[in-house]
DUF4369 domain-containing protein
Amino acid sequence: MIKTFLTLIIALLTTTIFANEIEATVVFENMTNKELTSGQFINISTNHKIDVNNPESFKITLPEKGKYIFTFTSEDFNVYTIYPAKMSSNKNVITVRLTNKLDVNSTMKVSSSSKNLDLKTTNEEIENLISKGSVNFILHGIDNTVPEDYLAFKDKYGISAIKENCVIDPLSYKNATMNNKIISQYLTSKYGTEWLNDLQVKPFGIK
């Protein structure tokens, strides 16, 4: 009797522990003629790394629904990692899009005159900088790829993003947050808050 009771308790505890887990699927979109033979998928939020040597889709387990940060690194490709802002049992597909390095670099190339905005920058100055392609949100990460929705965002608003080192010192964080908030204030003054819906991945300082 006691043994049966303990077995039931263990079963209930096991069910409770794993009840909130989510199974997600990682799929690849290879936009090149090159074959994927090596790379690494990383769940930055849980520090879980998976070595990959072919483009076949695979499944991962997440502890619960919510926000996660994923990336994929490869020496042979530039990579966009596309996934829902909040992972759930219904929204659980992570797409790894592989593109030629040359193509992405030319598409995402940021002007060398790209400028961090400060509190003295006026809306007129921002618009002038936008016309030159010199206004960018600042992101931080372990690679130099920029989330895909920033491509469409630049087409619509003239503002894209740049990636800086994943190691964030207090001064860099302060400057990035200020830059992003100034851009946010400019966009809100011109478009209201609708522009926020066009960015799945929000930069520092923007909710």
In short: The two ends are 55 Å apart (CA to CA). DSSP finds five helices and nine strands in the chain. Residues 2-99 form a domain with the Immunoglobulin-like fold (CATH 2.60.40). Confidence is low (pLDDT under 50) at residues 12-18, 103-113.
